[in-house]
Amino acid sequence: MTVAPSVGLNDGRTLPQLGLGTYGLNGDEGTAQVVQAISSGYRLLDTALNYGNEAAVGAAIRETDVARDDLVVTTKLPGRHHGFDEALASFDESRANLGLDFVDLYLIHWPLPRIDKYVEAFKAFVRLQEDGLVGSVGVSNFTAEHLQRVADETGVVPAVNQIELHPYFPQAELRAVHESMGIVTESWSPLAKQSELLTEARVTDIARAHGKTPTQVVLRWHVQLGAVPVPKSADAGRQRENLDVFDFELTPDEVESISGLERGRLWDGDPLTHEEF
Question: Which residues are catalytic?
C-alpha cells in the first residue's frame, strides 16, 4: 500500500502530496468508493458543499478503520454563502453534512469578484481557525491579486490555492506567486482531458522509459512541480495506480517536455468571470 508523503503548510500543518477528488462519488456507492480509496492509502479527501456528497464522504470516514487524525478532510464554501455570517453558517452546514467536529482544510471555492465578498468570507475562515473548528484555511481558483488582497486585508496568507493545473495549463506564473507567498498549490483536473493528454507522444514515451503508465507520469509531473494533485477515480485499480507515483523521478528535461504541452485553460474557469453559487 502506498501512502503519499506530506508537504508542509505555512501554518505548521501538513498536507499529503496527492489526494482523492470526490466529485461525482455520491450516495452509498460513493461512500464505498471513498472507503476503498482510504484502504488503498489515500489520506487527503477533497469534497465541497456544491458537490452534494459531503454526507457520503463523512460516512466513509466513519466506516474506515483508519484513524480520523490520519485523514485530511477538505471541503469548500460555495459562492452563494460569501460574506462573514454566511460563511460561518455554511461551515456549520458542511460540518453537519460530514458529521465531523473538525475540518482539516476549508477553501473558498471561487472568488466571485463581481460579488466582492471573498475577503469577508475569508475573515470568517480565520475566525473558524481561531476557534479550533478548522485546521488550515485556503482558497481555490484565486488569482495573484485576489491572494494578495486577502493577505493584506486579513493578515493571514491562505495555506492553499487549489487551481486548474495540468500539462495543458501549467500555470507557471501563478505557481511562482504561490512559492513567493508560501502557499501550497493544489491541482484540480490534474489529468486534463484524459483521453487526449494520456496519448500525447511525449507522455507515452516518458512512461515507457520509466516503466510507468501515462497517468502516473502526469501525476508525478505535478508532484515534481511542487503541486498536490487530487485526481478523481471511483475504480479501485485506478485509485491505486494514481497513488503509486512516489517510487520514481522524472528528469528536469522530462518535466520541461511535459510542461511544453501548454495550450491554456480547458474548462470555463476564468476566476475573473466564472460565477459559481
Answer: 51
